[in-house]
Amino acid sequence: MEKIIVLATRNAGKIAELEKTLSEYGLSVRGLDAYPELGDIVEDGDTFEANSLIKARTVAEHTGLVAVADDSGLEVDALDKAPGVYSARYSDNTPNLKGETRDKRNNEKMLMELEGIPHEKRTARFRCVMSACAPSGKCITASGAWEGFIGTEEVGDNGFGYDPLFIDATDGSVSALLTREEKNKRSHRGNALAALLTQWDSFWSDVEK
Ligand code: ITT
Asked: How many whole angstroms from its chain centre is CA 148?
């Protein structure tokens, strides 16, 4: 039987990073485009886990299919772990930023906030919690993290979000210069998905019962 899942995200960067691995795992992946009536899901949780479960549960209930959701963000130590769960909306209330996209404005604000802070104090990590929920309400979750530093200028065009500012702690690579495959091997999202898939077969057999 075909195993259909809905990817509960409207972030094209996330979809690009997740689609291939999920389909290689034998899953037929549907996007949220098929459900325009769903609208924006209110992410009012205080943690990545809470928001990830809100998204997966809402989409599974609405579609009657298993839904997979990712909630992720950047924790910057010099900013007391901000923007964290607010990473997507970080610059929304900051006036006079020049960037044409939200991602650009977020990066511009990040560079302003960290101005004058030396490299060794610019430590940060990406975090991701990924969830899968069935229409019955049964859910599984898994998390991943990626340690690094925030650079002093935007570098590279790959990826999305804060990738042009994020420098891998292990080898100094800028995330936005990595290929999708290279990023998936080391990233918070790649690790969270790999951990979720270790629980997948037992989750799916419960769903089919
Ligand atoms: P969905 O809720 O529809 O999935 P979103 O972009 O609003 O999309 P989140 O609420 O999880 O998703 O916010 C994640 C934000 O964290 C994202 O918009 C980026 O700003 C940042 N982020 C997460 N993972 C990232 C990555 O791999 N590279 C760069 N930035 C990332």
From this structure: 16
Extract the residue ranges of the chain whose pLDDT is less than 70. none
pLDDT at 208: 86
Residue pointed to by tokens 């209330």: 93
- 62 close to 38: Cβ distance less than 8 angstroms: yes
Cα–Cα distances in Å, from 81 out to 48, 51, 74?
13, 17, 8
Report pLDDT digits (tens) over 39-97.
999 999 999 999 999 999 999 999 999 999 999 999 999 999 999 999 999 999 999 99
Which tokens in the block code for residue 180?
């999708």
Select from 72, 154, 158 the residue to mutate for testing ligand 1; criterion: most ligand atoms less than 8 Å from CB.
Answer: 72
Residue to substitute in 9, 10, 14 for testing ligand 1 pocket (most ligand atoms within 8 angstroms of CB): 14
Q: Which residues line ligand 1 (CB under 6 A)?
A: 9-11, 14, 43, 70-74, 87-88, 106, 126, 159-163, 187, 189
CATH number for the domain formed by residue range(s) 3-207: 3.90.950.10
User: What is the distance in A from the centroid of ligand 1 to the CA of 86?
Assistant: 9
Do residues 133 and 139 touch, judged by C-beta distance below 8 A? yes
SS3 (DSSP) at 206 = helix
* pLDDT for position 93: 96
- The pTM assigned to this predicted structure is 0.97
* Residues noted as catalytic: 71
